[in-house]
């Protein structure tokens, strides 16, 4: 049984249909990359899976249980969510922000074990030196790494990440994806991550789901999905796809007609 499954999911903002019959599953230890042009529905899909938005149809299951039948605290103990951007209007420190990831397990006090988990997550994301800094004082990339650390201390079986590398430099992009890849393998996490960088997605994701105009255009391994025809049809670019390394990668040549999106 897959840890996370989405079946025939649809969603609309009033009379504007945004998602059309989305179906996929993610097993333990697997990273699924959501890719596609701006406005294709990636963020809406992630919010529907997390329960922040209520789908107009279809089902989302975690370990066989429907999300809508679970209490919000149960969902938080089973699945973590990293938003596209982290707010900076707070006086909380980095340590306090990451500690919030332990909320699904806390009663009245914070244990030494909770604090140690926070310290470990900060060290893993190279944030130890920033532990006592205010979130408002950090750069966008530093705040993004804090949000990833907060998700890790939730110790869930599944993690949803909405463009977690968008504000990071190339070194920290790779470092963050290496952390997620390592945890997927070591702890059997099921990870769904929306990414703009196709080469990054092809390097670290086991499978890719290409979205176009709120529907699934392609689904499979990076080798199966990353093709010149897909890039032309979905992204509206001419590109060369090279396969001389462990993972395929694309080299853009010129832009064409932008891919349609919602």
UniProtKB/TrEMBL annotation:
**Catalytic activity reported:** an R-cob(III)alamin(out) + ATP + H2O = an R-cob(III)alamin(in) + ADP + phosphate + H(+)
CDD domains the record matches: ABC_Iron-Siderophores_B12_Hemin
Q: A Pfam family in this protein? A: ABC_tran
Write out the entry's keywords from A to Z.
ATP-binding, Nucleotide-binding, Translocase, Transport
- Which parts of the sequence belong to the ABC transporter domain? 4-238
What does the record give as EC number?
A: 7.6.2.8
Which InterPro entries does the record associate with it?
AAA+_ATPase, ABC_transporter-like_ATP-bd, ABC_transporter-like_CS, P-loop_NTPase
Q: Is-annotated flag, keyword Cytoplasm?
A: no
What is the uppermost EC class here? translocase
**A GO term for molecular function:** ATP binding
Q: Which Gene3D superfamilies match?
A: P-loop containing nucleotide triphosphate hydrolases (3.40.50.300)
Respond yes or no to whether keyword Manganese is given for this record.
no
Which PANTHER family does UniProt cross-reference here?
HEMIN IMPORT ATP-BINDING PROTEIN HMUV
- Biological role: Required for corrinoid utilization. Probably part of the ABC transporter complex BtuCDF involved in cobalamin (vitamin B12) import. Probably responsible for energy coupling to the transport system.
What's the name of the protein?
Cobalamin import ATP-binding protein BtuD
Cite the source lineage.
Archaea, Methanobacteriati, Methanobacteriota, Stenosarchaea group, Methanomicrobia
């Amino acid at each position: 049984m897959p840890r996370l499954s989405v079946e025939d999911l649809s969603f609309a903002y009033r009379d504007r249909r945004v998602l059309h019959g989305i179906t996929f599953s993610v097993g333990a230890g697997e990273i699924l990359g959501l890719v596609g042009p701006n406005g294709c529905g990636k963020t809406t899909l992630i919010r529907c899976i997390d329960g922040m938005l209520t789908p107009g149809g279809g089902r989302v299951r975690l370990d066989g249980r429907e999300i809508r039948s679970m209490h919000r605290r149960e969902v938080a103990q089973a699945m973590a969510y990293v938003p596209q951007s982290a707010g900076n209007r707070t006086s909380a420190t980095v340590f306090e922000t990451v500690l919030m990831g332990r909320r699904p397990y806390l009663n009245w006090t914070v244990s030494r074990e909770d604090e140690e988990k926070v310290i470990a997550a900060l060290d893993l994301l190279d944030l130890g030196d920033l532990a006592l800094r205010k979130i408002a004082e950090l750069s966008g990339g530093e705040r993004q790494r804090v949000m990833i650390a907060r998700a890790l201390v939730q110790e869930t079986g599944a993690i949803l990440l909405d463009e977690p590398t968008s504000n990071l430099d190339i070194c920290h992009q790779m470092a963050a994806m290496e952390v997620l890849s390592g945890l997927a393998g070591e702890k059997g996490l099921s990870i769904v991550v929306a990414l703009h960088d196709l080469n990054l997605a092809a390097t670290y994701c086991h499978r890719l789901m290409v979205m176009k105009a709120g529907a699934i255009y392609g689904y499979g391994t990076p080798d199966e999905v990353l093709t010149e025809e897909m890039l032309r049809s979905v992204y509206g670019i001419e590109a060369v796809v090279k396969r001389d390394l462990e993972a395929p990668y694309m080299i853009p040549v010129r832009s064409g007609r932008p891919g349609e999106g919602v």
